[in-house]
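User: Hey, quick favor. My workstation is busy. Could you predict this chain's structure for me?
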Amino acid sequence: AGGNVGAEIVAKANPDGYTALASTSTVLTVNPSLYRMSFNVERDLQPVTVLSLGEQVVVVHPSVPVRSVQELVALAKQKPGALNYGSAGTGTAIHLGAELLKLRAGIDMTQVPYKGGGPAAAAVVAGEVQVLVGTIASTIPLIQAGRLRALASTSLKRSRLLPDLPTVAESGYPGFDAGLWFGMTMPAGVPRPVLERIHAATVKVLAIPEVQSAMSRQGLEADPCSPREMAARIAKETAIWSEVIAKSGIRLQ
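Assistant: No problem, here it is.
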């Protein structure tokens, strides 16, 4: 259920500091607009810290005659609905990243959902679909091999792994941000001293070079913050994705 099963268990757990949730950002910022949930993220989950940032990139099959986001948008406007994009399923970060691009650019592309980011990337390589807003972990080997063409990264800052690749924001859409992140939350009501101790311990672990190296190999970057900063991030992104879901008419089947 898109991560809701684990989130519900934590939301309803005893707030004694022994139960925590490690989840993707979509569980906290997207799912409230997609699912009927038996808990409320803001009321029932206490943010601890962001664990890591994950990068996403806009890629196309090499046969698509575009080399930038601007050219992709121009092609899509010339042929409305003719371009298909792969996703890892409705409501996933990969799906919503493409939908945000559609809304911001005013273009029409058709979603083709797959069972994960890897299969979606493979579908672009095979020419089943033409476009993908995919994770860097699933796409960078294919980009480096020339089997996919990267157009832009979707975070506010350029990818550390592809530093010469512009961002979507730099490509004419200021403020565009469709990065994926991972965070830790706990049941609401965890005593403040316990929360502070767990936060400090988590931040300490995220600073270990071996941990950062392991994250980097997955296209991730440690990005710890305070509980208050994480709560603000959740609120901001929840508003953004709620609007995208409403305007795009996204429904789970």
